[in-house]
Fold this sequence. Notes:
Helices cover 31% and strands 13% of the residues. By secondary structure, the protein is an alpha+beta fold. Strand 6 (106-108) and strand 7 form a beta hairpin.
Amino acid sequence: xxxxxxxxxxxxxxxxxxxxxxxxxxxxxxxxxxxxxxxxxxxxxxxxxxxxxxxxxxxxxxxxxxxxxxxxxxxxxxxxxxxxxxxxxxxxxxxxxxxxxxxxxxxxxxxxxxxxxxxxxxxxxxxxxxxxxxxxxxxxxxxxxxxxxxxxxxxxxxxxxxxxxxxxxxxxxxxxxxxxxxxxxxxxxxxxxxxxxxxxxxxxxxxxxxxxxxxxxxxxxxxxxxxxxxxxxxxxxxxxxxxxxxxxxxxxxxxxxxxxxxxxxxxxxxxxxxx
Length: 275
């Protein structure tokens, strides 16, 4: 589609922004000239566009403090929160584009349908604590508390889901792959010392952990600085290997009279890899 020529800025204090306008049936980038004030973030610019040029521009936002995860978008092709992307980080005269997250279906303009994530959340068995001790309490070591605390910082902005190429570039993989946000959720549950639910087969076969090739793109865009790859995905991969494929662990279980764990089926393969 042929792009419109950018309009000229009316003054040195103006900024020209291209915003994607349209629906699932198609659209294009529309250029807008906005007066730039000191301290503005990208979300401020979007609000200015609504106030001055396009009151029908659809955008999702809530707290404007980087804690609700609502205003996720792609700014100059990079996934981020509009409320946390400061305008003074762009070079003077730099072309700025704002587009919706690519991985999810477009509803209108910058608003996408992220219901895929809520459906994936339903597949994860909830926390199931072990029985209380004789004195009526449950105890944890502080190091165990600290280990899972990081995962609870997630604000569900779904930027990690947006950048994960397993589903970003392959729509057909979504049914078989939970994505990094839910590997964080699964890690928080699996590493919790009081939880008794067994989710390893779900992680291996249904959540599609093996499809992840640890490129760390999810970690790079996390606004809460959660080390998704190193602290959640890789430890989960290690647990899967130990449970199903480690010969030493298999021998140890046999010597202790335990039945070795067997996967219900072979190693899952992403639909995108099938001929």
